Amino acid sequence: MTGARPRPTGGAARTGAVACAIVAVLALEALTAGTAHGRGSSPAWTASAPGSDPAPSALVAADGPQEALAAAAAGAREQVRRIALSGLPAELRTSAWNALRSTGGDAAIAAWLAPGGGYDAARQRLRDTRTRNRLFCERVVRTHPADFAPGTRTAAERALKGTDADRAAFVKTGYAQAQQSDRTARETVAGEQRAVLERDHAFVRTLAGRDPGEQVRVAAAWAVRPGATDEDVREFYGFGWTSGAALDLEGHRLRTAESEVLRHRTLTLLLKAATGAEEALRTASDVAAARAEAERAWQAVAAHARDSGTAWRAEREHAARQAEAWRDIHALALGATEEMWKRIADPAGANQRSWTEEEQGAAEVAASWQEILRRAQDGETRVRG
Q: Is the distance from CB of 385 to CB of 282 less than 8 angstroms?
């Protein structure tokens, strides 16, 4: 009921593959060093608790590695904050806020992002059938205007106020029944019986082939499929367009959140290796070999940060295309006289604002990875001597 989930591309796909390969390593470390939730050892970027005395090795280490760890910790906290403030489902937002409010500081953030931590637990709750049914009902309420689909909107609101069984029944049969009832009612209204203009059909066909949103393209293609009627096109303008757009936005938010969590998990291991290799260099008997190992370790951190920044710049471009597309739709709707077009004006404006926020957020995260890249390059220079 939530539509096809967009697949990560580019840097996100590579990061996902790396992260999957290291989950076993992280799990083993959790078993041997305490737990993945803050007891025992913490991920490499976790800052020391305020007032605690650093270990002797930390006193020996240069400020450089600590600055890299601090930059990574700041990036991780910012990612959790973004999730807490996002339009993601309440399960994820509430869990993120709990991590941010925790007295555990950076260790709590690390535990939330770690495999099996708070993020994974919240993500698992989203897969529960009862949660998916609730989210579907909420989406129907958001995207089906009362003046176009009153029966469907009312049925969804009733299901939300009811039980899990009520919501399951709405998803299974109630939604389709309410849609048909609304369609029948519209057919009796003279104003809604006016034939849809060919230019409106043509515009939907254009969206089916060119819209930047996958789910909007699917909804548009359905509206102009062979055998479709004017009423299918009316329904696309009435709620199908907005529903597809909501799925595209939700999918983008879930996909980018998932990818960024995996990136921070990978960064944890890479920073642990780099800081460990740099520390080992200080007491190594074979200095040349130790220096080469430390240099490679910092290069790996730099490559990961570079790829992550590149991935986020691509996400920024995607969000910018979406924002621009919805800006154009909003302008068209405001200048239209047809009731169908007027109905899309407010949703178009809201989508423009949402995608603009996604664009700005992507730029901020890309900048945070640029800072980690700079610290990693400093580390490489430092160990090179």
A: no
